[in-house]
Amino acid sequence: MANQVVTRTYRARICNYSQVREDLDSLGFAASKLWNVGRWTAQRIWDACGQIPGANVLTAYLKNHERYADLHAQSSQRVLQELGEAFRSWYGKRENGNENANPPGYRKHNGDHPRSTVTFKQAGFKHDATNNRIRLSKGANLKDDWADFVLCEYDVIGPIGRTIETVQQVRTVYEHGVWRLHIVCRVEVDARDAPGDGVAGIDLGICNVAAVSFGDEAVLYPGGALKEDEYWFRKERAKCDDSMSAEADRLDRKLTARRTHFLHTLSKDIVQRCVDRGVGTIVVGDLAGIR
């Protein structure tokens, strides 16, 4: 076996939650407000010249905006990159014939901003592996002084004793009413030798979730089950009087679990078919329009 470096994302609980919750809320709200500023700016440019600006253009245009300084510069940049990715995904869906696809909307519901995910890149966090702590940077507008930051004590969700090293970035994610840390690391693993020299191509889609070509044959994985789940759960969720109720949250969790199970089962089947056919290389098609 050869050693291989891969990227892994670990979810972690925040142990000192009561101490950092308000700060994390303020960062999440700030990300939503910046998204909305970017969305409004993109709409204005779109109406004026018929083109939607990319993430780099939006970043250059808004870097002096008041909301940009609510977050660390790299975090603000990532918010606008996500907006650009959402627009590109919408383009792709329209080009693939999905006329019902809508452009990304504003992050606001009944006058309230949701808690958006905030990404912290290398300059925006500091990791203390010895004490299981991560220090997250605030934007200038949210700091009380130059030394003001969010210090999170974390506990990795998973096998006991797992250590976190070589952290590449950190995301604060609001999951089912609580903040979690998603810690992205570079990890060295023992890579098994490839089962063969064969090549398989995989195209991801909507009607067919995946189409796998082995050269002499192809296997289709229909997405009907996912569509049926989406339709049923959205219909049931619409019956909830409050979109933030316990029942709505239960339906969201169940849909997520079913979707995750479907995709894990599909992935496992594809990998096993590749092993059985001596495939050593898998090529995945362009993901535009699939998000």
What topology emerges from the helices and strands here?
Blueprint: E1 2-14, H1 17-49, H2 55-62, H3 73-95, E2 118-120, E3 125-128, E4 133-137, E5 149-156, E6 167-175, E7 178-191, E8 198-204, E9 208-213, E10 218-222, H4 224-238, H5 246-276, E11 279-284
Helix pairs in contact: 1-3, 2-3, 4-5
Explain what this protein looks like in three dimensions.
By secondary structure, this protein is an alpha+beta fold. It folds into two domains: 2-191, no CATH class; 198-284. 38% of the residues lie in helices and 27% in strands. It has five helices and eleven strands, in the order βαααβββββββββααβ. The chain has a seven-stranded antiparallel β-sheet. Strands 10-9-8-11 form a four-stranded mixed β-sheet, with helices on one face. β3 and β4 form a beta hairpin. α1 (17-49) packs across α3 and α2 runs antiparallel to α3. The two termini are 35 Å apart.
